[in-house]
Design brief:
The complex is a heterodimer. Helix content of chain A is 32%, strand content 4%. Chain A is mainly alpha-helical. Chain A has a domain of 39 residues. The two termini of chain A are 41 Å apart. The mean pLDDT of chain A is 92. By secondary structure, chain B is an alpha/beta fold. Chain B has a domain of 258 residues: Amidase signature (AS) enzymes (Alpha-Beta Complex), CATH 3.90.1300. In chain B, a hairpin with a 2-residue loop joins strand 10 and strand 11. In chain B, 62% of the residues are buried. Classes of the chains: A mainly alpha, B alpha/beta. The interface between A and B is large, with 50 and 74 residues.
Chain lengths: 95, 488
Amino acid sequence: MALDRSDVTNIADLARLAIAEDNIGQYQEELSSILALVEQMNAVNTDDVQPLAHPTDAVQRLRSDVVTEENHREKYMANAPAQESGLFLVPKVVE
Amino acid sequence: MALHNLTLTQISQGLEAGDFTSVEITKHFLDRIKQLDQGENGINSFITVCEEQALADAKAADERRAAGNASKWTGVPFAHKDIFCTDGTLTTCGSKMLSNFIPPYDATVVENMKREGAVCLGKTNMDEFAMGSSNESSFYGAVKNPWNLETIPGGSSGGSAAAVAARLVPAATGTDTGGSIRQPSALCGLTGLKPTYGRCSRWGMIAYASSLDQAGPMARTAEDAAMMLNVMASFDSKDSTSIDQDVPDYTATLNDDLAGKVIGLPKEFFPESLDGEMKQTMLAAIEKFKELGCTVKEISLPSTDLAIPAYYVVAPAECSANLSRMDGVRFGYRCDDPKDVEDLYKRSRGEGFGDEVKRRIMIGTYALSTGFYDAYYVKAQKIRRLIKNDFVKAFAEVDFIMGPVTPSPAFKIGEKSGDPVEMYMEDKFTLSCNLAGLPGMSIPAGLINGLPVGLQIMGNYWSEASMLNAAHKFQQVTDFHNAAPQGI
């Protein structure tokens, strides 16, 4: 499927990606050609095929509901781009 | 023989025999990295060199050996792809987004190597978030192929491949989502193995496409790859897709007899369009397996051509979900002066990710968006079933499937970077293994125009030991794996 400029803007918005106005045309072209490649899948009828979720059809393991993580608060916070009083700092969300 | 020409196994034996200490060999490799990897004309295979830590670990390893409790790996130098989280050591995944990320924990694969006392010399360069086949998408610059500095080493584990090929380390870890161990191994003349999905823990391995990602060894010989997989592989309750299956000693069966083994040659891996020299090189390698007692059978994997389209739905879809955690809030890159939280997310991601990563996130976001999920993601998962069924049918009749890893030897840096779809074609022989979750490996099969190419060996689920056995026997009667780039 060929995308138009507004599709690209919409996808970038959904993906929370800022892309420059000047680059929209290039993304439009590249993403459309990738989708054209992907749509070769449509050449095959898969109506009766079960989707494959796990290569060896393994199922999710269950585990006991016990605490396994130790507290490493300071270590984890060390990577924060901005913090205050031990909390992650972001721009004001609620007016 | 110069220390850097020793294989992993020989280094392990040399340490055991007391021919040299871990500190000596660690210094030797660190010096080589300084000489050959860094600076303008360097290979650029390392993002981070852990000199101080490596020397401390080497000293500790020598003490452990003196105390009498060394393992085969104690004191043996190697490198990790920069996709594995290393506690306290910068882990970038080749991205500006993580250019300041110091993981607070070790990946399970990292922990496994540490427990043995292996000495990690540093973190190797890679395509950004493992998305690429040429190592040109790294924020830290392209890696050069030691066989010809104007060509790409392959990707995404291109730094690991180039480092091993240049004898900067005897082996390195890699990860393979669509060919990222096998393709660079082929283009740099190495032996690389992508195990069965679930064999090595994905915990602490930065996720690209979770249902495809798998870690594995990149080394010079099958014997070395076996020694490495022995330690990398483990069941891990922290990875929900890890499979609880015993890890055999992969070195124990290397010399088993190959007589009577059947090799399947899928006609889809030898299309009319395949380069004549590549075809001849592959068939000559397969001839060696016949001499070792194998028989050859033509087979068909009819869904092979659907692997590229299915992969470019599944991988981008999963990456768009996995990479949503990079939002500039808790770790990683954050843009300057965000005006509100939406602006913070969008600009941090827009500025922190490179072009290929953005393209794949956008394709994935589109494929998963309302109204398109069935047409793309579910359709691709159905194609995966068809691809898997082809293999199940084939492995009822054959022990191994063989063919080329890549359509051609390494191409020039910059040659394909302008056209994403053309670049994707590079992976046409490697993707189906990942989609089916099967193990695949690349072994050196000779040179074309002075550049190495690889023979791909695919095996049934959990048949890594037999594949390594086949590769090792081949390497006992051939010399391709001993070839080294000029001046190395």
